[in-house]
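Quick start: read one record
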Amino acid sequence: MYGWKGVVGLVKPTFRPGSLDRFIRLMPDSVCVVPRYVGVSAGTEREFQEALAIAEERVAELAKLKVDLVLIQGVPPVMLKGFKFDAALIDALQKKYGVAVLTATRAQVDALKALKVRRIVGVTYFKDDLNPQFAKFFEQGGFEVAAMKGCMDTPFSDLGKTPAEEIYAKAKKIFIQAGGGDCLYLLGAGWDCLPAIEPLERDLGTTVLSNVPADVWAAQKHLNIRAPVKGFGRLLEEMP
């Protein structure tokens, strides 16, 4: 029977391939995934601000399909609104559509707390006009942010082509320059950073968190499933 352990509806910010495939592969085969898309293409602040209204339409569609959980992926639209907005958004959508809703931002904050993280070094593929706002979001959540820096000159549409070796090298450099921390945080699912997670954890002696593992962990937690996965960092291997 399809989805006998649960059905997760994903509200994806872009049509870009990669992160959907990663999410499905890391979830148990007994969980079905139903994707819906917002259509972000340029990665600008204005586009992110407009994305939330479209995301709500997708939540409504998934609620009609009676999924067990709606997971709104893509962290910038929520982060730019602030930490308190996150909880208010989840509460409003759940009450309006009668379905369990989780944002990627809430998944990440919950994961950081489960991993007992206090000090974060953040690495993103965005320009530095947005990164201070991302840092502020986590500071409002009670975390110390040692750095939140962009490291890519790659066009937003081509981020998925970035080699894991390049992500590893640039993230490692920023982490060391910032003085280290309890967690190296790789913001965004636009780049395929999963292959870099385990080497970074091993070489830096820290925890590495990124979007897809946090989403998988949070979805399993909501569905009361515990299916650890090795090779993608502490979060999925230990399932705290």
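The mean pLDDT is 95.
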